[in-house]
Amino acid sequence: MPAQFGSYQSEIYLQGMSGVVPAFTNDPTALESSARELMEPGPYWYVAGGAGSGATVRANREAFDRRRIVPRMLTDATERDVSTTVLGTELAAPVLLAPIGVQSIVHPDGELATARAAAELGIPMILSTASSHTIEEVAEASGDGERWYQLYWPNSDDVTVSVLERAERAGYTALVVTLDTWTLAWRPHDLDQSYLPFIRGIGTAIPFSDPAFRASLERTPEEDRNSAVLRWVQMFTGVDKSWERLAFLREHWSGPIAVKGVLHPDDARRAVDAGMDGIVVSNHGGRQVDGSVAALDALPGIAEAVGDRVDVLFDSGVRTGADVIKAIALGAKAVLLGRPWVYGLAHGGQEGVRHVLRGLLADLDLTLGLTGNRSLADLGRHTLMENS
Ligand SMILES: Cc1cc2nc3c(=O)[nH]c(=O)nc-3n(C[C@H](O)[C@H](O)[C@H](O)COP(=O)(O)O)c2cc1C
Ligand SMILES: O=C(O)C(=O)c1ccccc1
């Protein structure tokens, strides 16, 4: 195991002997309800909620529950290695922090706390275009930590180039372009509470900090905050994007690029043809198309369609170490973790995020060993059994 993860076996026993209980639960399935008790309803439902009836949020979990791991015995899995390489980044574990926007609605330190916790554990953070702190501030908070940048592709080429240049200059190495949220979906929870974080003027790092965006305004964001925020929201709505236009991003980003939100094997092939380096199989945590296929059900077909021509990443519904193992067994190289650590952020800022991540990494390492596997390469379709 890489040094920073230590020995989880001894950690379990030492914690048990110390009698010191953690600040909040180690049960990933209890995190959401415990966060609900301490968060305001607006931010809570913004994070927890999904599109429409919530069918896809449930389907994501159901797809994990339907598959079960078949453990093997006496394989000598005392020494384990969960490291991997994705888009040229060496990872100590196959886990990255999914891009999550407007984190200051959850905790005042927002992305800064997340960046610090991720760096402490050696897990890359993917910074959202909709972040509440600037690209540069988050880069500084992440110190030596690996950083990736997520792009919501602006309608203006000037603004696109400006953000990409800033991200490269600030040391972000890989780019994740999100394709599934060119407009926000019908999200009844947010509508019922009239809670749209950025319309309320939160998460406005780009409107305030980006020179190209500022240049496009008649009045500065300081003079007219609402117009700046509205214009910024319009910047991300649809139009003018195509598989061919990905070449434009390639021209302006020198590192690897992945597209996020792929659910059909043909779209995965188009991403390969467009020269992408990776794809993220994802339904945005059930927040966009209510009734869409569970991301885990889409994964095996996509992994098969692209083979090893690009790196396949996965998110939507990952909650436990066993879930990570299931996604990897079905063809992902690594997973993006979303809501769980956001609840950690709500519970205790940097320390809360760290607590959730550490628990997941320990669970992953222990489950890998207890199922009789020494490395991620040992996992495959043979690892799982599917229940009807
Ligand atoms: C509160 C919240 C904000 C999000 N913001 C973004 C974002 O800014 N960019 C993006 O690509 N995805 C965003 N996502 C989607 C996540 O990156 C990820 O796909 C999703 O959370 C995975 O589902 P899970 O949380 O159920 O595991 C957001 C998700 C949540 C819950
Ligand atoms: O809420 C989301 O799912 C999301 O992706 C987003 C989009 C814009 C701003 C903040 C988050």
Characterize this entry briefly.
This protein is α/β, with parallel strands linked by helices and 388 residues long. It has helices spanning 8-18, 31-38, 41-48, 55-66, 110-121, 135-141, 157-169, 188-192, 205-209, 211-215, 225-234, 246-252, 265-273, 295-306, 321-329, 339-370; strands at 67-69, 84-86, 89-91, 95-97, 125-127, 147-151, 174-178, 257-262, 278-281, 311-314, 334-337, 384-386.
Order of helices and strands: HHHHEEEEHEHEHEHHHHHEHEHEHEHE
* Gyration radius, in Å: 20 Å
Q: What general outline do the C-alpha atoms trace?
A: globular
Strand order of the largest sheet: 4-11-10-9-8-7-6-5
Structural summary, described in words:
- The protein is an alpha/beta fold.
- It has one domain: Aldolase class I (TIM Barrel, Alpha-Beta Barrel).
- It is built from 16 helices and 12 strands.
- The protein has helices spanning 8-18, 31-38, 41-48, 55-66, 110-121, 135-141, 157-169, 188-192, 205-209, 211-215, 225-234, 246-252, 265-273, 295-306, 321-329, 339-370; strands spanning 67-69, 84-86, 89-91, 95-97, 125-127, 147-151, 174-178, 257-262, 278-281, 311-314, 334-337, 384-386.
- The protein has an 8-stranded parallel sheet. Strands 1-12 form a two-stranded antiparallel ribbon. The protein has a two-stranded antiparallel sheet with strand order 2-3.
- Helix 6 links the parallel strand 5 (125-127) and strand 6 (147-151).
- It is globular.
- The chain starts with 7 loop residues before the first helix and ends with a strand.
- The structure holds flavin mononucleotide (FMN) and benzoyl-formic acid.
- Benzoyl-formic acid is lined by residues 101-102, 130, 181, 198, 284, 287.
- Belongs to the FMN-dependent alpha-hydroxy acid dehydrogenase family.
- Residues 20-388 form the FMN hydroxy acid dehydrogenase domain.
- It holds the Pfam family FMN_dh.
- Keywords: Oxidoreductase.
